[in-house]
Design brief:
alpha/beta, disordered N terminus
Length: 191
């Protein structure tokens, strides 16, 4: 049936994406040059699937001021530390919020009331070293655009998942985002 074909196609696509992220060894980020392309949905879906497979997963929402990964993960009502609480404030990674239905999934939210340029990038890089020792995979939900949040996420990730849509604006912004990542020396950029 047509529905069965779509279901198996979606399942095969999810399996391939999961294996790609697992092979990334460390941190993968979901990004785009444009808002509304599905970055957060991709990040949340991969996180839940990887955690269901037994991977210790940490999701970090890097969309400072416009966070919403908690909603996509089904964790909107779960109190969560922000990533600067850990990177700059001395909280432990082990204090990251746990998903109520999936113990292997942890979460750090983006801070509210701060701008990306106010964040300590060196402290974030040190935190990411600890993340790689503590978790099997870290998924970074990067903000749209190519500002400070873009650079912070790109420096931390070993695998770039470029999410775009079919409209000309999204395609143009996605292409430019991929070019900028390559200029930063990123060679593992996946569409």
């Amino acid at each position: 049936s047509r529905a069965g074909e779509r279901g198996s196609s979606a399942s095969a696509c999810a399996h391939e994406a999961t294996e790609t992220v697992r092979a990334g060894e460390g941190a993968a980020q979901s990004r785009s040059g444009k808002g509304g392309t599905g970055k957060t949905t991709v990040c949340a879906g991969l996180a839940l699937e990887l955690a269901a497979q037994g991977c210790r997963v940490l999701c970090i929402d890097l969309d400072v001021g416009l966070r919403n990964l908690d909603i996509a993960l089904g964790m909107a009502q779960v109190p969560a530390l922000s990533f600067p609480d850990v990177s700059e404030g001395g909280a432990s990674l082990l204090e990251a919020a746990r998903h109520p239905g999936c113990e292997a999934l942890s979460f750090l939210t983006a801070p509210v009331g701060r701008r990306p340029e106010e964040l300590d990038q060196e402290a974030f890089a040190r935190m990411m070293e600890a993340v790689r020792r503590t978790f099997d995979i870290c998924l970074l939900d990067a903000p749209a655009g190519v500002g400070d949040g873009f650079r912070m996420a790109a420096q931390a990730a070993s695998l770039e998942l470029l999410v775009t849509g079919p409209d000309p604006g999204a395609l143009r912004d996605g292409t430019r985002t991929g070019e900028l990542l390559e200029l930063m020396g990123k060679r593992d950029v996946r569409l």
